[in-house]
Every structure is written in structure tokens, then in C-alpha cells.
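Collaborator request, handled under Task 6.
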Amino acid sequence: MKIKFFFVLVLCCFFYSSVIISDEKVFIELKIENEIITNLDINKEKKYLIALNNNLKNLNKNQIYKISKDSLIREKVKKVELLKYFDLDSTSKIADNIVKTVIKNMNFKSEKDFELYLKDYDLTIDDVKKKLLIEATWNQLIYDKYKSNVKVDEKKLRNKLNQQVKENKIEEFNLSEILFELKTGENIQDKFDTVKNFINTNNFENAANIFSISDSSKFGGKIGWTSKAQISKNILDKIIELKTGEISMPIQINNSYLIIKINEKRNVEREINIEKEMEKLIIIEKDRQLNQYSVMYFNRIKNNLFINDL
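C-alpha cells returned to the collaborator:
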């Protein structure tokens, strides 16, 4: 988790009643404390999510609506908590850096190209900045609260790394994930069957959009290339024998369950800088632990908020 601090202006929030704007009636879908979500908000979120992941176009209207609504609920819950500690300024340099990372990951050559792309979805760079800034500031909050709880066994990581680089060759996996929790009355086998059936009739990316509670769900669950040494033993043991295109059985991570897909595998031959690789491993291990605290903290504050679905 890359840690940044944010000092900002307060975002405006507007309360809507039944009015006509551009021939479309606006109405409140739900309230989360003093934050509201309207039908127009959900429609805009749909455009945002499709802009990030075009595979969503393959889903039906009800599925896209639910994904967009759930995404906004997560965002509003985080925002309610964040405003207790931070201002949120999408004009900050941090927001600019976040967008640059997204532009690079989505393979756009320049910010101008990205802006032109967003216009097709009636979105602006500032729309994207506001959303990504909430995610980054949430990461900052989790770090501030739980950094003292994070413990890294560097000796164990170094031994693991040394085993991987004996021949200056590193095995890497291109991974995607679905992280989910069981609701009251659900059991793991039935839930897994539901997710797996959806993957078989659609694809993994859309399943991540629908079922995953991880932030990677916005990008179809994509994690990207990860070296074998960077994967925890608990997960590695479950995926090491999988072939390209296969998915794992659910892997329990505290109160959640993780499904991993192997997109590709490769062996990379290069001169290994042990210390630099160790730095990466330490960051990844800290990030893994902080992500677990993030899920736990989010669930706790959500359960304590008044959410009125109108």
C-alpha cells in the first residue's frame, strides 16, 4: 500500500428531490447517514465502471445496476468515515499521481488520450480523481490505524526469496482474484458453485465485478504479474499446480474467501538484486496484512451506519 497524506477542500454533496434534469426524473435511491445516492449517481457510476472495464457491457441491465449501486455504497461508506479525519481535494498532486498510474495501467499514451476516452462515457478526469482519491485516502486511514499491528518476518521472506533465485530465474504468475464473504444462511460450497457457474457462463472478469468485495473488482479482479516469492504459502500451495486459465478452490483469508485465476505463467531469467527484491516482498506482505484490516474495518463501520434503502 503506497501511503500518501491528503490536505483538501470539502467535496460538495447535493440533495435531490423529484425534479427534471435533461428530461430524466431524479430520485433518491438510498441514504447512508447524510450521504445520498440517486438514480443519476448510479447511472454515472455505471459509466465509470464500464470505462474501467468494458466487459461489464456483456452483463444485463439488472446486473450492471446492482454492481453500480453496491460500488457506490462502498464508496459512500468510506467517504462518511474519511470525512471524520480528512478533507478530500481532487485537485491535489496526489490525485494527479493516482490518475497517472491508472492511465499507465490502462495503456493510454497520454492524459489527453484518456480524457478523450472518458468523454465517450460522459466523464471527466476530475470525476475519476474524486473516486480514486477516496480509495487512496482510505488506504491512508487504514495504514494510520493499523501500521503498528503489521508484523513482517524478514528472515522467513529472505529464505523464501533465496530459494527462488538460485539460478537467476524467477517464476511469475499473472493473476486475477475474487474475494467474497458468506452472508447469513450461505455455505461455502453453494457460494462457490454459484460463482463458478457464473464464470463458466460469462467470464471471470464479470464474476469479479459482481461477487468480489476487493477494490480490484472494478478492474475485473486483475492483480497482474506476481513472482512466486511474493505469494503467501497459504495461497501458493493452492495454485501452484493450476494450469493457465484454471481457478482455485476458495482459500480462506480470515472471514473472507479468495478465488484465484491463473491467467499466464512464465519464467523470467535476469540478474536478481536480492535487496531490491526483499524491499518488494516486505511492501507486499505489509500490503496483504493491511488489506485484511481494511476489510475488517469497513465491515465494522458499515454495520454501524444507518443505511436507508428507499
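The cover message to the collaborator said: "DSSP finds ten helices and nine strands in the chain. The chain has two domains: 19-148, 154-279. Please let us know whether this matches your experimental observations."
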